[in-house]
Structure formats: structure tokens, C-alpha cells
């Protein structure tokens, strides 16, 4: 269960958006954010998860889900060319590496 209070923003038969607020940062599934540094994308929501890709500092990501202190994201736009073109654009990152989600 994500930390912080869950606030339902919009729900319908086709989609669901929820906000999880912790401190001053709001993490909203379905919303976008920007990475604050180069960060590894992992296969699961833990540091022991396999590294499957990277989101470079300033990359635009969409939050797919949250779990504890982690967000599952997909990179919408890399801030620079990927060092490994075969790496994945979807994975888990610690939420401390995301800016305020808009």
C-alpha cells in the first residue's frame, strides 16, 4: 500500500487516477513527471530488482503505479540519446528521483 493518504481524482469504467500525497510531493498514477537525475529503471519496486533501463536527468515519464517509495514509470521522452538502445523504457524508480508531478 502506498504511503500517505490516497485521494481519488477521477474514476470511470475505463480509467482510474489516484493521488498519493507524502510530504509536499504528490504522485498521481497516469500523470507525468521529470527525473531529477540519471536513474536506473528496475524490474520491480526494490533496489535488488534487475536494472532494465535508464531514465536520464530531465527525462519525461508517466507514472503507471506506486508501491511504498517506488513508482512504476514509462519514459515518454528521454532527455538525451539512450546509451543502450536495446534497454527498456519501463520500470521502477525511487520516487525521490521525481519532481512534483503535474
Describe the structure.
The chain is mainly beta and 102 residues long. The protein has a domain at 30-97: SH3 type barrels. Helix content is 0%, strand content 50%. It has strands spanning 5-11, 16-22, 25-28, 32-34, 39-42, 51-55, 60-67, 70-77, 90-94. A 4-stranded antiparallel beta sheet has the order 4-7-8-9, with no helix packed on it. Strands 1-2-3 form a 3-stranded antiparallel beta sheet, with no helix packed on it. Strand 7 and strand 8 form a beta hairpin. The chain is globular, with a radius of gyration of 13 Å. The two termini are 22 Å apart. Residues 1-25 have low confidence and may be disordered.
Entry keywords:
SH3 type barrels; 9 strands; single chain; mainly beta; 4-stranded antiparallel sheet; 102 residues
Give the averaged pLDDT, no decimals.
79
CATH topology of the domain at 30-97: SH3 type barrels
Shape summary: globular
Number of strands: 9
Largest sheet: 4 strands, antiparallel
> Could you give the distance between the termini?
22 Å
What is the H level of CATH, i.e. the homologous superfamily of the domain at 30-97? Answer: SH3 Domains
Stretches where pLDDT is under 50 for at least 5 consecutive residues are 1-25
State which percent range the strand residues make up. Answer: over 45%
Reading the helices and strands in chain order gives EEEEEEEEE
- Helical proportion? under 10%
What is the correct CATH architecture of the domain at 30-97?
Roll
User: Which CATH class of the domain at 30-97 is shown?
Assistant: Mainly Beta
Class from secondary-structure proportions? mainly beta
Read across the widest sheet, the strand sequence of neighbours is 4-7-8-9
What would you report as the Rg, rounded to the nearest angstrom?
Answer: 13 Å
Amino acid at each position: 500500500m502506498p504511503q500517505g493518504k490516497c485521494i481519488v481524482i477521477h474514476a470511470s469504467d475505463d480509467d482510474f487516477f489516484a493521488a498519493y500525497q507524502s510530504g509536499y510531493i504528490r504522485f498521481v498514477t497516469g500523470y507525468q513527471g521529470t527525473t531529477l537525475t540519471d536513474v536506473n529503471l528496475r524490474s520491480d519496486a526494490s533496489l535488488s530488482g534487475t536494472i532494465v533501463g535508464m531514465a536520464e536527468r530531465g527525462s519525461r515519464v508517466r507514472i503507471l503505479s506506486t508501491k511504498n517509495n517506488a513508482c512504476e514509470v514509462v519514459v515518454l521522452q528521454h532527455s538525451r540519446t539512450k546509451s543502450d538502445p536495446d534497454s527498456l523504457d519501463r520500470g521502477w524508480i525511487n520516487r525521490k528521483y521525481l519532481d512534483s508531478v503535474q
